[in-house]
Specification:
2 domains, 73% helix
């Protein structure tokens, strides 16, 4: 790519990386809210079926003439709990679409890798929640083995998402080159300089604060300690940037909007610098993660299919 193209790429990355949180909701936040909402609804329905059946949502639907074929009860193979098992399992299977999409490369017209990864995460979080309530919290025998294999797969999936976002990527989800990372950081620097230019003599003091936030210890570590270092640095920088906005407003008299914009830029720049400095180790961690996550997923699906087959073969009244 030419230098002009890299400058343009840097500008695009700056625009993507520096958007204020109020202008775009992070997918992870939306996913957490969705997971909590689904969990609360399912938890209410579980308690209602067990203790106050008349107060359940299913009973309300029965009163409206809907879903009468699903009896109210608290058994994993009956009523809506069986339905939850099917829906949750279907969601888990649909995650594999992301694997197929990856094989098409970043230039495919079927949507960006980022979008498909988000879909993969959504199915991989909501599906297990539904399956958890489908079990009615009975984890004995083959069901228990299948369930805990699923839990382990989900936990490693969440860890994989964290590792994945440590690799700087563009708007489409394609990994940025080292030059593109440098231009993105330089573009954010220019934006910060344009704001600092309004403060004259206070510039050095503000820059010292910024340097403290963006400073990265890139010492030699093994894969495990590097991962712990990433997590610790994230928590530390979250605290630093949380206090940074107050400092900019109270001590340097920036208005709240400008201070918020600068904090967002410095947060993105700190993450970008750390990810650049630890890039080679992050790739190694991701390779290790694949070695664990993929076999776990295979075991989970094999046991899940065995569980389904056993259900159809040995449950009376299914045939």
């Amino acid at each position: 790519m030419s230098e002009t193209g890299l400058v343009a790429a840097g500008g695009q990355q700056e625009e993507a990386l520096a958007q204020r949180p109020v202008e775009r909701m992070r997918f992870e936040g939306w996913l957490i809210y969705t997971a909590v909402a689904v969990s609360l609804v399912c938890a209410y329905e579980s308690l209602a079926h067990r203790f106050v059946p008349a107060a359940s949502f299913l009973n309300m639907l029965h009163s409206a003439g809907i879903m009468k074929s699903y009896p109210i009860g608290y058994e994993p193979g009956k009523g809506i709990w069986r339905l939850m098992g099917w829906v949750g399992s279907g969601m888990m299977l649909s995650m594999m679409v992301y694997t197929l999409r990856k094989r098409m490369g970043h230039s495919s017209r079927l949507g960006s890798m980022r979008m498909w990864l988000n879909f993969h995460m959504l199915m991989g979080v909501i599906g297990p929640i539904l399956i958890t309530f489908h079990t009615t919290f009975k984890f004995g025998g083959l069901i228990g083995t299948s369930y805990w294999a699923m839990v382990a797969t989900v936990l490693f999936g969440v860890l994989g998402r964290y590792i994945y976002i440590q690799i700087p990527r563009g708007i489409t989800g394609a990994e940025l080159s080292m030059k593109e990372i440098e231009y993105s950081a330089a573009a954010m620097d220019r934006q910060l300089e344009s704001q600092l230019g309004k403060k004259g003599k206070d510039q050095k003091a503000i820059r010292d604060i910024f340097d403290d936030v963006t400073e990265v210890d890139a010492g030699e570590r093994n894969a495990f300690t590097t991962l712990l270092h990433m997590m610790a640095a994230d928590l530390r920088n979250r605290f630093k940037t949380w206090t940074l906005k107050k400092t900019l407003v109270n001590e340097f008299c920036f208005d709240g909007r400008t201070a918020g914009y600068m904090v967002t830029l410095i947060k993105k720049k700190a993450a970008l610098i750390r990810r650049k400095n630890l890039l080679s180790t992050t790739h190694r961690i991701l390779r290790y993660w694949h070695v664990i996550h993929i076999p776990l997923a295979i075991v989970m699906f094999v046991i899940m299919f065995i569980h389904i087959i056993v259900y159809f073969v040995f449950t009376p009244g299914i045939h």
